[in-house]
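[audit] Reproducing an earlier prediction to check determinism. Same input, same settings, fresh worker. If the tokens differ from the archived copy the diff job will pick it up downstream; this log only records the rerun itself.
[audit] input (219 residues):
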Amino acid sequence: MVMSSLAITLSASMLVISQGKTLNEEKDLAAKIARFAPTVITADVSKLSANDRKALDKIIEAARLFDPLYIRQVWSGNEALLRKLEADKSPLGKLRLHYFLINKGPWSQLDENASFLPEAPATKPPNAAHYPDDMTKEEFTSWVETLTPEDKTKANGFFYAIRRGPDLHQRPLRCLSARGIGPRMRLSRRLEAVLDEPLRVAREIGAVFPQVAPDAEDA
């Protein structure tokens, strides 16, 4: 009987401690979120033609497609963490998701990129999702020295990511981002169809980011 009472007391104490931590985290996140003021961005579109207004809607729709692309590139674990946060419907879970979306990741940009989620590294990884999580600067430098001049240029540029397995190799970013680029290119083609003056730049964008199917490991 004594042991049973002790176990109940310990369980109750742990529950109180857990609830206290949750309330403290909720207050902390609410305070962090309050530092950001929602701002409505608008414009006078009365002088636009009906078709150009439709095109503007498509431009805004296309811009939203860049959010998941950016989230994917911030950190290799970002997408999985976002899905986990979206599944948590508790008050604390909603606050975590809100602040994650503000920062496009689990690091608070106004607090020197300190992590506000236990699942994420304490500080924002410098590798982002461009390099393997465990790659050091020394390893990268040594590997680059083994490449051809052409591949060195790619490795030091902005359009190829470095992947491991079994050997280090380069992947074009257009392949890794194909899931987001495809819908954006379809919107670009719709833009040309409705604009009074066709948007030629859409074709130029298509030449830079052709729609490609992602490889099996990136699908």
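[audit] rerun output stored. Observation attached for the diff report: The chain has a mean pLDDT of 81.
[audit] end
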